[in-house]
Amino acid sequence: MGFLLCSSVQVLGTEEEWRGGNIPHTIGGGQKVRLLKEEMQNHADRDDLVVLFTDSYDVLFASGPEELLNKFQQFNHKVVFAAEGLIWPDNRLADKYPKVRSGKRFLNSGGIIGYASSINRIVEKWKLQDNDDDQLFYTKTYVDALKRLSLNITLDHKSKIFQTLNGAVDEIELQFEPTRVRARNIIFETLPILIHGNRQTKHLLNYLGNYVPDAWTSDLGCTVCNEDLLDLSTLDEVYHERHIHKFWEKHKGELDVKFVGPEEILSEGDARNMGMDYCRQDPECDYYFNLDSDVVLTNPDTLKILIEQNRRIIAPMVTQYKKLWSNFWGALSPDGYYARSEDYVDIVEGNRIGIWNVPYIAHVYLIKGTALRTDLKEKNYFNQDMMDSDMSLCRNIREQKIEKKTRSPTPESFHMFKPPKGIFMYITNLYEFGRLLSTENYNASHVHGDLWEIFSNPLDWRDKYIHPSYTEIFTGNVVEEPCPDVFWFPIFSETTCDELVAEVENYGVWSGGKNEDKRLVGGYENVPTDDIHMTQVGLDQVWLHFIREYIAPVALKLFSGYHTKGFAMLNFVVKYTPERQAYLRPHHDSSTFTINIALNNKGIDYQGGGCKFHRYNCAVESPRKGWSFMHPGRLTHLHEGLPTTNGTRYIAVSFVDP
C-alpha cells in the first residue's frame, strides 16, 4: 500500500505477512485499513497535510504531485475516493448510493486522497479484522448521508484523478506527447493521474505501463531498455568450453543420452513440463531456454541479448515472414484468448522498438532458473483443461496459481490466501532475432516436405533450396555462355537436387521413354524421355512459382526486353541410364525458352551425358550439379542429349511460355 505525504512516499505493511484474504476472488483487504489507521494516528491533527493512499502493486502514476494537488483542490472536498461503474462487494447497497447525472457512481477503495485529519476521522472507526473487506467499510461510510456530509466525502466520478480499469477497459486510449504518454479517458475527456488495474485488468495495466508515463515516447523511444542490464562484456570465456571439457573428462568413456520419442506416449504438456523441470531440479541451472522446432534464429547473439536484459521471463520477437503472426499477444480477450492491442502492428512491423510487458509469449523464451525454483516451482504449468500448452503456461505465470479441486477455505485458513504474485513476461524487438515457420499446412507424408513450403515459408525455402551464388547472376559475372544464346548459371543448392531426386524416385513411376503418353492431351510424345512430371508428385504449383520468382528475373536479364509469363505446361525430371534411355535425339522444344537443370554430378554419379546444339556445332559435356542451361526452344536451338555411358543422370526440365 502506498502512502503519499506531499511529495514523500511511505510504504505500509512491508514487514507484515499478508492476512487480508484472497482479494481477486473474494472479499478482503481489511489489513490495508488497519495499516492506514495506525499511520494516520500520527497525523490526526494535520488539516494542512494532503495524503494520497493507494494500492501499490497494481497502480501506475501518470503525472506528479503538482497536477495531483491542483486537481484535488478543484474538488473542494475534504476526501475524494476513486469511483467505478460496478459495485463491490455488496450490490444490495446500490440503491443507497446518491444518484449522479454523469460518471461512475460506486466507490472504489483503491485510491483515496484527502486531508490527513479527515482521512483519520474515517479510518479511526475501523474495528474489524484484517480479512474483512476494506471497500465495504468505506462504502458504508459513504452511503450514510450524514457521515458523507459531515466528513465532506465525494467520489471521482469522471476519473479526473483516479482511473479504475475494471469495467472501463474500452474507455482508455493512449495519448502520445513528445516526451511522455498519458492514459486518456475518452468518455469524460480526462487525463487521470493514477491508473488502477483493479480486479481482472492487470494485463491492461501492464500494457499501459509499457508507455505511461515515459517508458516509451514518440520522441525518445524506449527509455527503460537500458535499465538494470547485466554486463556480460567482461566474460571472455569461450561459451560452454569449461562445461564441455568437464563433461568430456568425466564421461568420455561412455555417453548417456536420453531420447524422448513418440513411444513415450507423452502429451505436449507433459513433455514441456518434463523439460522445464530438468532446469528446476538443477541448482546450477541459471536459465531455461525454450526453442520450438518452428523457430529459426538467425541472430547468433540471441541468448546473450536476452540474458543481458535481466528479466525473469523474456522472449525475442519472431514473426512469420512478411506476416503479422508472431510469438506474442499484446492483449487478452475477456475469456483469456487472443486480442489485438493498439500497438501490436507497430511492434511487429518495427515502428515501435523496445521491451514490452505482454500477457502471452510462446515458441522461444528464456526463464531464469531462480524463477523456476521459487515462484514457478510447481511441476505442472503446461496442462490446463481445454487449453493449448503455451496458453496454459502463460495463464499460470500471469495468475500464479494451479487449478486444483480444494474445499472452500475455513475461517481459520482464510488468512493464508494471499493475492496472486504474477510474473511479468516481456517481449523484445530491440534486434532482429529470426522468424517463425508456418507449419499449419505442412505435409509430413512427403519424403522431403520442405520442398512444398515455397508459399508458406518463402524465405526459408530460398535459404535452403536456391544456390548461394544466385544473386551473383545480377550483381557479378557468374553467368557463362558456353554456346551462342545458351546461358549457364547456378540455381539450385545441393540439397534441392538431392531431395528432388529422392521425391521422384520415391514415386517411382517412370514413363519409360515411350511415344504413347497418357499424361499428355493428345496422348502422344514426338520426342519422349524417361521422366516423371511435376504434376505426378504434386510439385506443379511449387515449380511454376519457382519459375516466376527465380527464373523469370534471370530470363529478363539474359534475354533483354522479353518479359516471360512464367508459365510452363511441361515440367519434369528426366532419368538417363544406359539400360533404359541413354540419350535423346535432336529436336526443338515447344517453348519460348527452356531451362535444363543438372541434378547430380558427372564423374561421380554417371559418365557421359551433356547437350549438343547442332546449329552452332557446340556441346556442353560437363554439366554442373545445381546449374541450369537457359536457351531458346524453337527455331534456332536444335539440340540433343548426349549418351550417358554409365550410372544414372538426372535433369529437371521446363518448357517455359509454350
From TrEMBL:
It is found in: Endoplasmic reticulum membrane; Rough endoplasmic reticulum. InterPro entries: Collagen_mod_GT25, GT_PLOD, IPNS-like_FE2OG_OXY, Nucleotide-diphossugar_trans, Oxoglu/Fe-dep_dioxygenase_dom, Pro_4_hyd_alph, Procol_lys_dOase. Pfam families: 2OG-FeII_Oxy (PF03171), GT_PLOD (PF25342). It catalyses: L-lysyl-[collagen] + 2-oxoglutarate + O2 = (5R)-5-hydroxy-L-lysyl-[collagen] + succinate + CO2. Signal peptide: none annotated. PANTHER family: PROCOLLAGEN-LYSINE,2-OXOGLUTARATE 5-DIOXYGENASE 2, PROCOLLAGEN-LYSINE,2-OXOGLUTARATE 5-DIOXYGENASE/GLYCOSYLTRANSFERASE 25 FAMILY MEMBER. This is procollagen-lysine 5-dioxygenase. It comes from Chiloscyllium punctatum. The lineage of its organism: Eukaryota, Metazoa, Chordata, Craniata, Vertebrata.
